[in-house]
Amino acid sequence: MRERGGGVVEGRDIGTVVFPEARLKVYLTASPEERARRRDDESAAGVARRDHIDSTRAASPLVWPRTPASSTRPGRSVEDVVEEVLSWL
User: For residues 32 and 54, is the Cβ–Cβ distance under 8 A?
Assistant: First the structure.
């Protein structure tokens, strides 16, 4: 990807397994309730259960990437999040 000037890639293990040396890693999440609200096929309990399974599996577990560019403040607008991410660039 470096040869092509970089890129934006999404996935649960992109910053920790696929591209561990990426210059900027942004970990965005929402509460299980908010994520379930956005989906029609899964409850908040189901989302939380899947997160637990993903974060405790042996192969490529879901982990928070070690990066100074992280934010966990809930209830923010899309515009606020985009502005913060752009400031990290």
Answer: no
pTM, to two decimals: 0.64
Tokens of 49: 């259960």
Where do we find the tokens 């990290």?
88
CA distances for 53 relative to 63, 65, 66, 72, angstroms? 12, 18, 20, 21
Radius of gyration of the chain (CA): 15
The dihedral over CA atoms of 86, 24, 67, 26, expressed in degrees to the nearest 10, equals 60
The answer to whether 15 and 55 have CB atoms below 8 angstroms apart is no
* Whole-number Å distance between alpha carbons of 66 and 69: 9
Q: What is the pLDDT of residue 38?
A: 87
